[in-house]
Amino acid sequence: MQGDVDVSVIIPTHDRAALLALTLPRLLSQELEGATIELLVVDDGSPTDATLAIVSSLGSPSLRLIRQPRGGSSAARNRAIRVARGRVLLFLDDDAFVGPHFIAGHLALHASPDLRLVAGGIIQVRAIPDSIDESPGLRAYHRHPMPGGNSSAPAAAVRALGGYDPWFSSYGWQDQELGERLMTSGLRRSFAWRAPIYHYKPPAYDIDLRTQLVRERDRGRMGARFYYKHPRTTIGVATKMGPAVRALIRAADRAFSIEALQTRVEEGQVDGAHVPPWRAALLRARVESEAGARELARIRSAGAEPLR
To answer: Which residue from 63, 69, 244, 269 has the highest number of Cβ atoms inside 10 Å of its Cβ?
Structure first.
């Protein structure tokens, strides 16, 4: 029955059983001071049964595996949102390492009488941490209102808005967009200083500049959808869709020949590893902004309406 546990931790995953074997035990050994939890792992179309084997081997009644065909992290989270029993939904990534008071740190903020959207700290690490500092201070601070890897909100508020918008079908901005709707609906944003995650991204996960540009095109298209739904100046700046930001990017393009650099990188004439970081940053911004501008023009021309 929905609402009969205190918190549902929602973890989408795809073919990362080895990581889950390391991260899930830390969630199952939380110090909760009487709070009740469930862990919902959503297997988003993993090609083997390894995820099932890992979850089954842990043998916890608090842990539940939900399996679905490949649909992406937003679809996986929406699947869990529909069946979650917790009064609070806590969104976490499968590569997040946490301390023993992580869930309690989120729940403490939801004890307030006002409804809150809670974001926890994020520390990027290249190796699996031996220990977790649960009071890392500004080292873990960020301004993201609702990072999918460490955030929580009242389940009723999330369901009232329909969860994640499936219009955001690719990489980028789906978390911020749901956070925007939650804050517009009246939730107060809070930061959980004592609930950081150590976000494990080893060197093997690094991608080259050409692959980054493919991702930036996706981010640009989703950013255009975000700006179309919420045409505020701050969102225009963040998504690089605002007129002033677009003008600055075009000026940088002309001044530093970024379009020509893009052609050489994409055609394999230039090794992205040899591109100076500042030029690589301008190149990523150009690709994101141009892809977004094309998507925004398409949406406006078609008269498309956001799903939510």
So the answer is: 63
